[in-house]
Amino acid sequence: MTKKYYPASDAFAALSPPVWRASTVVFDSVESFINRKSRQPDGYSYGITGTPTARLLEQEIARLEGGKHCAVTPSGQAALCLAVMAFVQGGDHLLISAASYGALKTYADKWLARLGVEVEYYPADISGEIADYIRPNTRMICLEAPGTVTMEMADIPAIAAIAATHGVMTMVDNTWASPLGFRPLEHGIDLCVEAATKFFGGHSDLLLGAVSTNNLEYFSQLRETQSIMGLQTSPEDCFLVLRGLETFELRYRRQSENALVIASWLQQQPDIREILFPCLPGDPGHEVWKRNFNTGGCLFSFMLKQDNDSAYSAFFRALKHLPLGASWGGVHSLIAFYPAQMQRDRIFPRTDRAIIRLSAGLEDPALVIEDLQTALHAYSEALR
Ligand SMILES: Cc1ncc(COP(=O)(O)O)c(C=O)c1O
Fold first, then answer.
1. Whether 287 and 180 share a structural domain
2. What is residue 4's predicted lDDT score, i.e. its pLDDT?
3. Domain assignment of residue 48, yes or no
4. Does 258 contact ligand 1 (Cβ within 6 A)?
5. Is 33 part of a structural domain of the chain?
6. Measured in angstroms, how far is the CA atom of residue 265 from the centroid of ligand 1?
């Protein structure tokens, strides 16, 4: 292993990377100033094209993804939008998994549709049947596995192979698996997106996203779009994600193990209707998960026996340890609620029931289990 440190001069070197703050980049000659745009896609010409701190993070994420290039963005949602908007234009057909992250679907339905993009959703647990959805003007397939909240597994390598034969680009939101669980670029996917807000940052205190690719042409297009849309990142946030990455693998392994312990306990409880978690044998996505992914994530969903508003309120009121909030992947366990109507409104609904989603943190899982036990007791009391 090579030594990793950051020298500032002969007299100073640190183990942590420098935080470079800059809007203005200075030039040593008028010629290089005139030609500054030729420094792209990875050079520096103005703050909007990134700083050395952003580049360090991009190199680190590209390495993790097994990819050549990476662009970091101010959030995971910015990365998803960038990956689509850099390549899709009016008249194109865009295929999106019905269980994609909700804000990507809203962006497609409201903004892209307004610009004349034909947006179509496909079932989230799809495999080779994706071929039936491809049209002559299909430009890109957006994938996410497992699906947001409902956790369906798509067969990503199978879809990538079919897309390639049709000349259709593919983008995967790989946030749940992370590159430790799955590396989309090694399976023929063109663009790999991570919401670094979740596992990479790991401490629920920043927003950041990343798009990685092996294709230099795609990368140049991403960089230009990023710069034109002003999607640059704060160097402090890049620094914090670089720091988060130092413990990423340890956190990921422990949190994924904790998720399995908690989900397996929940499975035995009488008030549980169903656990949605492809890592569990018996889940409809288990075989696809086992075939394609190395390990699991820290996030899973479950449904309770009966939909009853006051019983759900009693459940959440009884929680003493688990905070209720959006997001996941941080060191603190977190719980979230998705009402039944949200599920019924989906194009390919997995269920018509309310869903509870749990992100396992680094705590002793016994603490989370104790909290869930109290909450389940309150739920069943309220049902009486
Ligand atoms: C799967 C997935 N992708 C993307 C995002 C968006 O990330 P961010 O919150 O950084 O915009 C989220 C956020 O919850 C997510 O869960």
1. no
2. 78
3. no
4. no
5. no
6. 27
Q: Does the beta carbon of 79 lie inside 6 Å of ligand 1? A: no
327 CB near ligand 1 (under 6 Å) = yes
* Statement to judge: residues 326 and 206 lie in one domain: no
Residue 277 lies in a domain: yes
Any atom of ligand 1 within 6 Å of the Cβ of 151 = no
Same domain, 224 and 265: no
Q: Look at residue 267 and give its three-state secondary structure.
A: helix
Q: Whose CA is nearest to atom 7 of ligand 1?
A: 76
Task: Verify that 193 and 289 share a domain, yes or no.
Answer: no
Q: Is the CB of 303 under 6 A from ligand 1?
A: no
Here the CATH number for the domain that contains residue 335 is 3.90.1150.10
pLDDT at 7: 86
| Same structural domain, 266 and 240 | no
Pocket lining: 101 vs ligand 1, CB cutoff 6 Å: yes
Tally of structural domains, the chain = 2
| pLDDT tens track for 46-80 | 999 899 999 999 999 999 999 999 999 999 999 99
3 state SS of 171: strand
Domain boundary among 246, 271, 300: 246
pLDDT above 90 for 159: yes
Report residue 2's pLDDT band, with 50, 70 and 90 as the boundaries.
low
Distance from Cα 345 to the centre of ligand 1, integer Å = 21
Query: What is the average pLDDT value for the chain, to the nearest integer?
Result: 96
**CA 39, 43, 46 angle in degrees (round to 5)?**
90
- Same-domain status, 95 and 114: yes
Pocket probe for ligand 1: among 197, 199, 299, the residue whose CB has the most ligand atoms within 8 Å is 197
**Phi, psi of 84, deg, nearest 5:** -85, -50
Q: How do 93-97 and 118-122 pair as beta strands? A: parallel
Percent of the chain past pLDDT 70, that is, above it, reads 99
Owning domain of residue 317: 248-383
Q: Is 203 found in the same domain as 100?
A: yes
By most ligand atoms within 8 Å of CB, the mutation choice from 152, 198, 200, 208 for ligand 1 is 198
Ramachandran sector of residue 83 (left: φ over 0; alpha: ψ -120 to 50; beta: rest)? alpha
Query: Which residue's CA is the closest to the ligand 1 atom numbered 9?
Result: 76
Q: What is the mean pLDDT of residues 325-329?
A: 96
Q: Residue 3's pLDDT band (boundaries 50, 70, 90)?
A: low
With beta carbons less than 8 A apart as the criterion, state whether 256 and 293 touch.
Answer: no
CB 264 less than 6 A from any atom of ligand 1: no
Measured from the CB, is residue 233 less than 6 Å from ligand 1? no
Determine, yes or no, domain membership for 29: no
Q: Is 52 left (phi over 0), alpha (psi -120 to 50) or beta?
A: alpha
State the Cα torsion 379-381-382-384 to the nearest 10°.
130
